[in-house]
Design goal:
The complex is a heterodimer of chains A (544) and B (98).
Chain A: H1 6-27, H2 33-41, E1 45-47, E2 52-56, E3 62-64, H3 65-78, E4 82-85, E5 91-96, H4 101-110, E6 127-128, H5 143-153, E7 168-171, E8 185-191, E9 197-203, E10 218-222, H6 226-240, H7 251-258, H8 260-277, H9 283-291, H10 311-320, E11 321-323, E12 329-334, E13 345-347, H11 348-361, E14 365-368, E15 374-380, H12 384-393, E16 408-409, H13 424-433, H14 437-443, E17 448-451, E18 465-472, E19 475-482, E20 494-495, H15 502-519, H16 526-533, H17 535-543
Parallel strand pairs in A: 6-7, 7-8, 16-17, 17-18
Antiparallel strand pairs in A: 1-2, 2-5, 3-14, 4-5, 4-13, 8-9, 9-10, 11-12, 12-15, 14-15, 18-19, 19-20
Chain B: E1 2-8, E2 14-17, E3 22-23, H1 36-45, E4 49-60, E5 63-66, H2 69-76, H3 93-97
Antiparallel strand pairs in B: 1-2, 1-4, 2-3, 4-5
The chains are: A alpha+beta (544), B alpha+beta (98).
């Protein structure tokens, strides 16, 4: 993975000292809240319901064991012993003291971490396929490009005061495991007929109040022109963005209002101009970054067979393991969705267990998935049983990847000052309703996603079943949506009808699921059945 | 009743104006009547509170109860982590929120 050079280190540490001084001045009353707020937000420090919340960037979801141990230390020393992984592959701590924040940033800098690009009108933490560098189906590791784009855009003045936040995602496989087309700027690495590497480009996506799925603006941008293309997109957005109206500032709104054809025309015109300036980054710089992502020294001649004699282990293997590009290795998905627990939460002790496993069994690497789970990307199949045993002992061996209990949920009204309704208790009650492993496995892939407000951090627009919490005259109310997807079969979920209270929405989900069980054809997932029969039958089942 | 609340500047903890100073407990909250703006200006200037705001509430047999669920969650703590609330020993404390 990428290692800081002296410039990275100096830049991040200077930033910490800037923030230390800003915090001191705020605490001494030399700065008002209005003056301080944008400065703390640029360092990932929000004020939430119960305390300050610190959101820490995990670029393209990649961590090493030293970094995860540091996060465990922060959880234990400065927070309340746990952290929460987000749908942007970041982690956040919900009980931070302002006076501790500069010290925490200093501790993060010690392990090459920071909170830059986790808030504000900037290019946010660039996300990627959480199987990057390990997936059997990827054309190449997308992370060198994610890192190159991160470096080219961080602190670049032209990109520091954007009309609104801007989210980039990079994948390199046909299967979309990163909700790429729900981003402002989605990239899929492809090979053309000549075998050259380039990008399919998908601008204009995003969730929130006004959801749009990104459209394809280019089949192939040569890889070393991608920064110029990104610049062109951002310039067109900057030129026309409705900075006067917060609800119309996102780029997806501009794409919608201009139309895809006109937006593309303007981008291509700008792109041609930028190419004449020769501002794309040098090959040597890409090569320098890419060298950090050289695959680890995989052993050869390893056995493929897995001893499945322990039935619990066999169930876990069947659900949590994905194919690896290297023979004899597997990708391990670590569930953070225990029945009765809180999705995405992880204790300091669990972080240390996973860090130890990554160090011992996965070339010191791990990933955070946007689905709020963790991944050990490079585990020898021969080591899977030992890994499972240790995960099991730490309460991390649920076998529910992509099943009905593997629910994405934002922190909601339990923590978030923007939320209108609680998400986490709804997720917990649905998980309890479908807790029986046999039922979960019978239902198969079923992605439920819950947001506590219209900002859609819980990706409800992309849920096979989506739930949106709203405020109805001071009480929580939940809208139910069906038919969304964040995968390569991307689609936007539609509202079923009138909303429900907390207990009612859990019952409604159960009725929708039961209807699916009744009418499904062999091999159909929930989303397949919904697409085949449409909304009406489900509505009838839900509302009677 | 009109309640003044905010977050402690240093710690971020939820705090309630009790008539004399700031309390962590909503049951201590005072009705600020028409004095709210003056208190708010003084406390902001003293750098003791962040994000101060006035909210509606009522006095009940169980003490002061904010009108909106968001403020009741602020007052108690996350409903999904009873151990992290102000009343970790009371298994029914969450019912007050709902």
């Amino acid at each position: 993975m990428y290692k800081y050079d002296q410039y990275d280190d100096a830049m991040v540490r200077a930033r910490v000292e800037d923030f230390r001084d800003q915090t001191r001045r705020r605490l001494e009353g030399k700065m008002t809240d209005d003056q301080f707020k944008p400065l703390r937000l640029k360092n990932g420090l929000y004020l939430q319901l119960h305390a300050y919340m610190l959101r820490i960037a995990i670029p393209y979801g990649t961590l090493n064991s030293t970094q995860l141990r540091k996060l465990a230390h922060i959880a234990r020393t400065y927070d309340r012993g746990y952290g929460h992984f987000t749908t942007r592959q970041n982690i956040q701590f919900h009980w931070i003291k302002l006076e501790d924040a500069p010290d925490i940033l200093g501790e993060l800098a010690d392990v090459e971490m920071h909170c830059i690009q986790t808030s504000g009108e900037s290019i946010r933490n660039i996300s990627a396929d959480h199987y990057a560098g390990a997936a059997a189906d990827e054309i190449m590791d997308p992370r060198p490009w994610a890192e190159t784009l991160r470096q080219m855009t961080t602190f670049m003045p032209e990109f520091s005061y954007l009309p609104r936040k801007f989210k980039i995602c990079v994948i390199a496989a046909e299967e979309d495991r990163a909700a790429m087309r729900w981003h402002d700027f989605g990239l899929r690495i492809v090979k053309n007929e000549a075998g050259e590497i380039g990008f399919e480009v998908y601008p204009g996506g995003g969730m929130g109040r006004t959801p749009f799925i990104a459209y394809k603006s280019s089949d192939f941008v040569p890889q070393h022109q991608i920064f110029s293309y990104l610049q062109a997109v951002l310039r067109v957005w900057n030129r026309h963005a409705r900075r006067d109206n917060i609800h119309k500032q996102r780029m997806k709104i501009l794409v919608h209002e201009l139309g895809e054809e006109e937006f593309t025309r303007q981008v291509e015109e700008e792109f041609r101009h930028i190419l004449t300036l020769g501002t794309d980054f040098p090959q040597a710089e890409y090569d320098r970054i890419a060298a950090y992502f050289t695959p680890p020294p995989f052993e050869t001649g390893l056995p493929e067979e897995i001893d499945r004699s322990d039935p619990d282990f066999a169930v876990w293997i069947d659900q949590q393991i994905a194919p690896h590009k290297a023979p004899g290795y597997a990708i391990v998905n670590v569930s953070l969705k225990p029945i009765g627990g809180i999705g995405g939460d992880i204790t300091a002790e669990q972080m240390e267990v996973v860090a130890d496993l990554a160090e011992r069994y996965s070339f010191d690497e791990l990933r955070v998935a946007h689905t709020q789970n963790l991944v050990l990307p490079h585990v020898r199949k021969a080591d899977l049983y030992a890994v499972w045993q240790q995960l099991r002992d730490a309460g991390l061996a649920d076998a529910n990847l992509d099943l009905v209990t593997d629910i994405i949920a934002c922190p909601g009204l339990d923590y978030c000052s923007l939320a209108n309704a609680r998400s986490l208790p709804v997720a917990a009650r649905i998980a309890e309703r479908f807790a029986d492993p046999a039922v979960q496995h019978d239902l198969g892939e079923l992605k439920i996603k819950i947001s506590g407000c219209i900002n859609a951090c819980g990706h409800h627009h992309a849920g096979h079943i989506g739930i949106l919490g709203v405020d109805r005259k001071g009480t929580e109310n939940y809208q139910l949506l069906l038919g969304g997807s964040g995968a390569e079969d991307v689609s936007q979920a539609k509202i079923t009808g009138p909303g429900f209270d907390e207990a009612g929405v859990v019952d409604a989900v159960e009725r929708a699921v039961n209807h699916y069980r009744t009418i499904r054809e062999p091999g159909e997932r929930f989303i397949d059945t919904y697409r085949r029969v449409g909304m009406e039958g489900f509505k009838e089942a839900i509302y009677g | 009743m009109k309640i003044l609340t905010g977050n402690d500047l240093k710690t971020g903890r939820v705090i309630w104006w009790d008539g004399q100073g700031w309390s962590l407990h909503v049951e201590d909250a005072a009705d600020v009547h028409d004095d709210g703006e003056a208190i708010l200006a003084r406390e902001e200037a003293a750098c003791r509170v962040n994000g101060p705001m006035f909210i509606e509430g009522e006095r009940t047999a169980e003490g002061v109860r904010p009108a909106h669920i968001k403020d009741r969650i602020r007052a108690l703590g996350p409903t999904v982590r009873a151990d992290l609330t102000l009343k970790p020993a009371d298994p029914n404390a969450g019912n007050w929120v709902i």
